[in-house]
Amino acid sequence: MKPRRGPIEDQTASGRAIEPSELSESPTDKGATKDLDRMREKVTAAAFRILAARPRSETQLRERLLAKPWVEPEAVDQCIARLKELGFVNDALFARNYASSRVGLKAVGRARVVRELAGKKVSRDTIEEAVGSVFNEAGEESLIDRAIQKRIRTHGRPSDRGSAKRMFDHLARLGFEYSLIVRKLQALKANIGDDDQ
């Protein structure tokens, strides 16, 4: 009858028995390579799950992946590089689509979209390029007109200084420029005066 395999009889200086697996594996072994491959596969699967939920910037995806306790930074770098090659991670496209979607859904100003994209950790240059492109197409003038018309439908025309201030604040929160808001509200006030006559 063979004796049961157990720890090697040799012991370390601390008196702990040495396991056979500790002797046979080294970082350059095939086992380590297989572990790295499995890690890359797990990281890639996790990245696809994250991106399937909603699009994300490269930095957001990297942070989400690195937040997992089992992930190695090297595997994340390799995964993101591969996803960029395949076109699944593209900050320029992400920023453009986000800006276009925000402007299409709600009349918001340039400053608000810039703030939101910065919060999504997109680089400043990429943000400027995407926002510039979207706002050249949509035109901030037409967007503020849409926002004013919606505000008038829900709250009526500003009839006094207080209601004009509330409309101004609303338009500023939407991210429109101060000078554009002032000009539009002055035009609205002039139109109200014309309507009264």
Q: How would you sum up this structure, described in words?
A:
The chain is 71% helix and 3% strand. It has 197 residues and is mainly alpha-helical. The chain has a two-stranded antiparallel ribbon. β1 (8-11) and β2 form a beta hairpin. α2 packs across α4 (73-86), α6 packs antiparallel against α7 (124-138) and α9 (161-173) packs antiparallel against α10 (178-196). The model is unreliable at 5-15 and 17-27 (pLDDT under 50).
Biggest sheet strand line-up: 1-2
- Runs with pLDDT <50, length 5+? 5-15, 17-27
Radius of gyration, in Å, reads: 29 Å
The number of helical elements comes to 10
How far from one another are the termini? 113 Å
Estimate the strand proportion.
under 5%
Name the helicity range. over 70%
Per the principal axes of the C-alpha atoms, what is the gross shape? elongated
Overall mean confidence score, pLDDT:
83
How many β-strand stretches? 2
Secondary-structure element sequence? EEHHHHHHHHHH
Major sheet attributes: 2 strands, antiparallel
Structure class = mainly alpha
